[in-house]
Amino acid sequence: MTRYSKWISLFAFILLLAACFMPWAYYADVDKHFTGFFSEKNIYGKPAKLLLVFAGYTSISAFFKHLWFKRSSLLVGGLNVAYAIKNFLLFGSCYRGYCPEKEIGLYLMLISSVVIFVMSFLPEGRIQPGDRDKGKG
Questions:
Q1: How many CB atoms sit inside 10 A of residue 6's CB?
Q2: Number of C-alpha atoms within 13 angstroms, CB side, residue 70?
Q3: Half-sphere exposure in the Cβ direction for 21 (13 Å, CA)
Q4: Are 116 and 55 in contact (CB under 8 A)?
Q5: CA 77 – CA 70 distance, rounded (Å)
Q6: Residue 67 C-beta-side C-alpha neighbours within 13 Å
Q7: Among 19, 64, 104, 119, which is least packed by CB within 10 angstroms?
C-alpha cells in the first residue's frame, strides 16, 4: 500500500475535484441543487476552493522527498478532513423543519478527503539517518 500511496492520493484528489462540481444536496424549497461552488445567494460560500487547496497540497507533498513536506501534509490533511466533515454536516443538516436531500457529490467529497488524509500517513521513501539533521543549522 505504501508503494502506491502517492498515486492513490492523486486519484483521490481528482475524485475530489470532480465531486466539487457534482451536486451535493437538493433543496426542494428553493428548487436548486447546491454544489461545492454554488449555493443560493452564496449562503454557504464556496467551500470547494479551500478543500481543493488543502487536498492539492497534501497530494502534491507526497511526491517530494523532504521530511518537512511529509510532516506538514499531515497537518494540512487533517484540516482538510475537518473542513470536509463540517461541510458534510452543513450541507446535509435540516433547517426550519426541512431536510435537504443529500446527493452523491457530498459523499464523494467526504470519502476522497479521508482517503487523501490516510494516504498522507503512508509516505513513500525512507529517511536515512543523516537526512534528519540536514535542515538544522
A1: 21
A2: 16
A3: 4
A4: yes
A5: 10
A6: 11
A7: 104
Residues 11-67: tens digit of each pLDDT = 999 999 999 999 999 999 999 999 999 988 898 999 999 999 999 999 999 888 888
CA 122/CA 118 separation, integer angstroms: 7
Residues forming beta bridges with residue 98, ordered by sequence position: 95
Band of pLDDT at residue 137, cut at 50, 70 and 90: very low
pTM over 0.85: yes
| Residue labelled with grid coordinates 510532516 | 71
- SS3 for the chain is CHHHHHHHHHHHHHHHHHHHHCCCEEECCCCEEECCCCCHHHCCCCHHHHHHHHHHHHHHHCCCCCHHHHHHHHHHHHHHHHHHHHHHHHHHCCECCECCEECHHHHHHHHHHHHHHHHHCCCCCCCCCCCCCCCCC
Conformation bin of residue 114: beta by default, left when phi > 0, alpha when psi is -120 to 50: alpha
